[in-house]
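Entry 12.
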Amino acid sequence: MRSRSRYIVGRDSQLREIKQALADAGEGRGGVVFLVGEAGIGKSRLAAEAVGMAFGTGMRALRGRSSTTGPTVPFRPLTEALMSLFRSGPLDGTSLDDLPLGPYRPALGRIIPDWSSDAENNSSMVILGEAVLRLLIATGKEHGQLLLLEDLHDADPETLAVVEYLVDNLEYTNVVLLATIRTEPCDALDMADSARRRGVGTVLELAPLTRPEVRAVIAAQLDTEPELVPQEALDRLWDDSAGSPFLVEELLQGMIGSGALVRFEDGWRVVGDLRSDVSTALARGILRRIDRLGPQGLTLLSAAAVIGRRFPLTVLQRMTGIDDRGLLSHLHAGVAAQLVVPDEPAPDWYAFRHSLTAEALLTQLTPGNRATMSGRAADAVQALYPDLEGDWCPLVAELRSQAGDEAEAGRLFTDAGLRALAAGAIGSAITLLSRAERLLAASQDPAGRTDALEALLPALAEAGDFTRAFGFAENLHTLGGSGLSASRLAALHTRLAKVAHTAGRWEDGNRQISQARSLLGPRPDERCTASIDVTAAYLALDTPGPDRTQLAEKLAHSALQAAQRHGLATVACQSLELLATLARERDFDEATALLESALQTAEQHQLPLQRMYALTRIGGNYWLTEGATAPLLAARSEAQRLGSATIVYTIDGIMILDAVLRAEFTAAQQSVEECLAVVQRLRLAPATRYVLMARAAMAAHRGDRPAMESALAAFADCDGAGSQEEPLTRGLARAFCALTEEDRPGAVRELRAVADLEDTNPSTYYLSGRYGIGLLLDVLSGEADRAAYEEIAATAPGRMRWNRQFVLFAGAVLLGRERRPEEAAAAAAEALRAAAPYPTALHLGLRLIAEAAYEDGWGEPVAWLRRVEEHFHQGGVAAVAGACRAALRRMGAPVQQRRTGSSTIPDVLRSQGVTVREYEVFRLLAERLGNKDIADRLYISPRTVEKHIAALGTKTGRTNRAALCELSASLASSAP
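Predicted 3D structure (C-alpha cells):
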C-alpha cells in the first residue's frame, strides 16, 4: 500500500493553468498564480508538482515558506527563497557579485544577509521590490525562474509589500510567482483578490474533492482499481474527510493501522468498526506511524513539534541529546513514512509534511511535558545562538511562553519588536510588541510592560491604529501603584501625548503633557523634560491661540538644547524638524539646513522613522519652493516601506492639492475619494481636514459653489475651526470661488478673513493668499503700493512657487502704472513662466491684470482675454468667460459668440423653449438677486435682464418674479 497517491487527483485544470504559466514565462511573459484553499486541500502537493514541472523545462525553482512558529519575521519567505541562489549560483555560472544589479544591490541587504550593508535602511519599498525583481530576472535569464512562496497567509506585512510590487511588474519577465494561501481572512488573500480583479494575477481555488475523486485517491493509496474500493470504507471516508485529500489519506492510514481495513487475496475488505471521531482518528493514525519509529523516534518528532512545523537539526539534536547517527536514521525513517520532509530552501532544516502532523504529536504531550520540552528547546537555541539574531529571538520568545515563563517571553518579544522597529518593519513590530505587552501585564512586570508600551504606542500611531493606542491610556493608572518610577510613568504619558498629536487630538495631548509634568515634580531631570518639551511643542502648534508659533519655537529650542547636552538623538531630530517648519516663514535656506541636520542625526543613530520624517519635510520644502513632487514621492515610498500610514496619507493629501492646483481635476477627484475613505476610517484628523480642504479648493477652482460648500461643511464637522488648515479653506477655496464668479469684492473679503484668522491662530501653511493672490488684488484696487509689494516679495512665503506667480503679476501691474511698459511686459512674461504648471491660476491672473494693462498701455490685454475666455468657456466657468467677452467689447475687439450649452438646461425648461441666455438669468434668480446684480454677473444691461425675465415668465407660466425665484431654487436643489 502506498502512503500517498502516486498522482494528483482532481486538479487537472489547475495543473494546466500552471503549465501554461510556466510556458508563457519561457517566452518572456511572466505571471502570478495564487493557489487558494483550506488546510489539507492539496496546495503544497500541487506546488511541489509545479516545482517538478519547472525543473522539467530547465527553469530554476526558488522556494520559501512563511513562518508558522511564533510571530512573523520580516521578509522570511523571501530570504529563504533567495538564499538558495548562494548555494547554487546563476544557471550560466556567473558569480552573483557580477550580476547587473547596479544601485539596487545594496537594497537587497534587507533580505539577503550576505549583502547586508550600512545603506540597507535607505531603500524604499519600491526600490526593494524592484531590486528583488531584477535579481530574479538576472539569475534566471537563460531559462526562466519559478518563485514559490508557501503559506503566504502567515507572511509579514513587509513581505506582502514586496510581493505586491512583484505582482504588478512580472508581466514582461521570464519569472513566475506561485504562492499558496489559505481561505481565511488575511491581507494575502485580499492581495490575491485585488490582483485577480486588476487582471495581473490568476487565482486557482482548490475545491474539495468530489466523491468519485475521493474514490480515486483511495484506490491510488490501496494500489487497486477504483471500482474495487470497499463501499463502506468509501462512505466513511467521504463523510469524514469533507473532500480533503490530506484527511482522506490520513484517515485511510488509520483504518489500516487499526485493522479495520485489511487486504486479502481477492482485494480489500472492511473487518472492523470504521466509526471514530475524525480528530481522534487522525491523531491516532499519525501516532501509529510514528510509533513504528520506536520510542526515540517519537521523542525526537515530539520535540520537533514543540519547536514548530519547521525545525533546525542543530537545535533538535542539542535539545534531545541524540547522536548524529540516531538523528539522521530517525529523520530518514520519518521522510519514508511521509511525516517530515527536508526544508529545501534552508539547509539543516526539516519540516512536517502538514501542520496537522505536528498538532497530532502535540496532543499526546501533557501540558507539563510540553512546557518542559519548550524550555529545553529555548535553552538549546540560546546556547547555540546567544545573540538571538534574526528570527531566533521571536522563536525563543514563543518557546519561553509555552514553557510558562511569561516574563522572560515578554522581554524577548520586546527585544524582537524593537529590532523590527529599528529595521523599519512597523507591522511586524506591532505584532511582537503587542504580544510582549500582554505577557508582561499577565506576569505583573510593570517595568518590562513599560518598555513594551514605550515602543508600541508610537508604532500604533504610525500605523494609524489610534483606538488601540488610546485604549492603553485608560489603564496607565494601574501602573502608578506598581512601584514604577515617576519618570517611567511620565514617559508613557508623553508617548500618549505624541499619539494624540498624530491623531489631531490636541486637547487630549495637552492633558497627557500636564500629567507627565505633574509626575516629575518641580525639579525634573532634564533628560525627561526634553522629550516632554518637544512633544508639547508639536501640540502647541496645533492648539488654537495667537502665540502658538512662538510657544512651539521656544519649547522646541529648549528640547533641542537638552537633547544635545544629553545625547538624545530622537528628541534632537524631532526638535530640528519642528524648528525647520517654523523657520520656513523667515528663510527656506535656514529650514533646509535644520532638516539636513535632522537627517544626518537620524542616519548616524540609525533612526528610520526620524529619517523618514526629515525626508518628508525636505520633500515638502521642495514642493513649496519649486513645485517639484519627486522628493515627496520618494519620501512616501520610504513611509510605505516602514508602514507609516500617517505619513503616507499626509503626503497623499499634498499630492491631491498639487493636482488641484495643476487643474488635474479628474485625477484629484479619484484620489480624494480613495484617500478620504481611508483617513476617515483611521481617524487621522489632520489628514482628513487637509483632504477636505483640497476637495473644497477643487470645487472652487471649477466654479462649483455647492460642491465647495458641501466640502467645507464636512471640514467644519472635523474640528476645522482654529486648525492650521482653516485659512487655506478661505484662501484657496472661498476666495477662488468668488473670483470664478467674478465677485472680486467677495474674494477680498475672504482674504481679509484669512488675515484675521492667521493673526488669531498663526499657521505654518503659507498658500492661503496672504502672500500671493491677496497681494495682486490689493495692488489692482490700489490698497497696496510699491512698498507693500516689496515687503511681501522679499519674504520666504512670497517666493514660494504658487505665491510667486501672483507676486510677479502684481509687480507687472505696478510697473505698468509707473509708465514702464517694457518692464511690465517682461514681468508678466516671467509670471506666465512661473504659472505654467497651474492653468487655473495662470488664466485668473491674466484675467485680473488684462484691464489694468489695457488702461496703462502695456502687454497684450486683448490676446490675454481671448485666451482666458477660451479656457474658462471650455471649463464651464460661465461668469469668467462672460466677463472676458464683455471686457473685449469695451476694448472694441471682435468677440466670438457663445450660444452652446443647451444641454445644461433642464428638460422641463428646454421643452418650454427657454434659451441658453435666459437660463443663465434664471439660475441666478435662485439667489434672489436684483436686475442690476444679475446684469453685473452676466455682463449685460439691466434692461436686457428685464426682457429675459419677462420671457421666462411667459414661457414657464410664472407671471411674477417671486414664483420664478421659487422655481429656480427648487430646480437648483434637485439638480444632480
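Annotation: The chain has a mean pLDDT of 86. The chain has 48 helices and ten strands.
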